[in-house]
Amino acid sequence: MWHLLEPLHAVLYYTPEVFEEAADLGYPVEERWPSYFAWRAAPLGAPGAVRVASAFYSFSPAMVAAHVPAAWTVAPPKEVLAARPRGIDRAYRSLFGEALDSPEVARAADLVRRAAEAAGVEGRPLAAANAELPWPDAPHLVLWQAATVLREHRGDGHLAALLTAGLGPAESLVSFAAIGAAPTGTFASRGWTHAEWDAAHQHLAGRGLVDEDGIATDAGRALRAEVEARTDRLAAAPWRALGTEAVDELGELLGPLWVTVLGSGLLPSVTTLGIGKV
After folding, report:
1. In 3D, which of 125, 203, 216 has the Cα closest to residue 170?
2. What is the pLDDT of residue 168?
3. I want to staple 75 with a disulfide (CB 3.0 to 4.6 A). Which of 42, 79, 226, 250 is the partner?
């Protein structure tokens, strides 16, 4: 379900319509990071760099500090949160056209919302912040907001799994690259210096998790497999609450939307999320 819902959420960070909304707020749009930090952190209020780095985890604190709290001097969180659904409405209408008004989208929105409302948010700051926002009226915006709650719910749980495995922010990326989740260069987008990356590599090597070339050992692959399995377990409750038949139905309903988003070419084909990797 995460594979199906993540692209529906991620249009927030890549579509021209959302970048236009960001530009209207005053954010630079030559690259995606100024608006990314604003869009994603705004549900937390007006957090500073330490809190955002903590919640986002895999980003270098220096990179976060380059964008936060400066983001709130461009536009306050209230304005950012008001612009999010405007951008998604425009992006979704461009992507899906008349399909947005179909009973299938309304049904998908209802099911995803039910799953999102069943997601416990204890100890999950980003999921809780998004779950606290008021629900929009339009079904396609309900779909996006529910997908956002669920992806942040899963993400918060993933951080708990990384912490349990003793993988700090940079180490989480080095160990993920080590199993071939994405080329090492892809992870440069998270802002870590070469020295910081090398230090994380050396620490993992000292634990016997990667070899000198940065390739995961058997122990490293086993640890990452356990991280992913624990992430799945921590993300399972909303889907258990929804029930097998409803989950299967939702998968069928989301399939065409998923194909449309991926087929649009708007999302990068290789990301730090490692979708499709185990």
Report:
1. 203
2. 97
3. 79
